[in-house]
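Record 1 of the preview.
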Amino acid sequence: MTKRNLPYRENPMLRWSYSLIAPLYDLAISRPLQAARSRSLRSLPADTAEKVLLSGIGTGLDLPLLPKLHHYTALDFNAAMLARAKLRGAKLLYEGLQVDWVLGDSMALPFADAQFDHVVLHLIVAVVPQPAQCLREAARVLKPGGMIVLFDKFLKPNRLALLRRAFNPLSRRIATRMDVVFEDVLREVPSLQVVSDVPLLAGGWFRGIVLRKA
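->
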């Protein structure tokens, strides 16, 4: 693929930093976010086996919380993070979890249109340089009527949040963005409709959002 088709290369430091923090990632966020992750993933159906894309799987902290009946495709842009996810997935293989692994870009997914019944976007929309492109790609590979299960941190519309915005120029280069307003992102992907939107953590900074493709 060309550089133009790999938008994450707009921020090469982000890829380097995630390689560096991969060994520490679980220690930093596993326990504080586990309950919120679990609540978000309850939006996946538990009665019919379907195809689910985990776009931005990271180290695989979602894997033990997933319904085992689905067939999952787990994608991440960082080889070090994906390697840790694979190790976690291998431990769950004998419990019936089916996962295919893909090294790829959430902003330029290597899949044809309408391939998945559902897409999980956990802590990725507010990480990538182009949040709307990430959501647009998720909608592209989603079948009509399918759901996007999203968990992330977003600023509320028209909220100043001066401290978060002050840290954003640094944080967006090494870990995550602090300035993403979900409503602005969604406006650029008109094929998606909000099914539910609930606060999950930190006074509503972290939200669980379910979207459906028309």
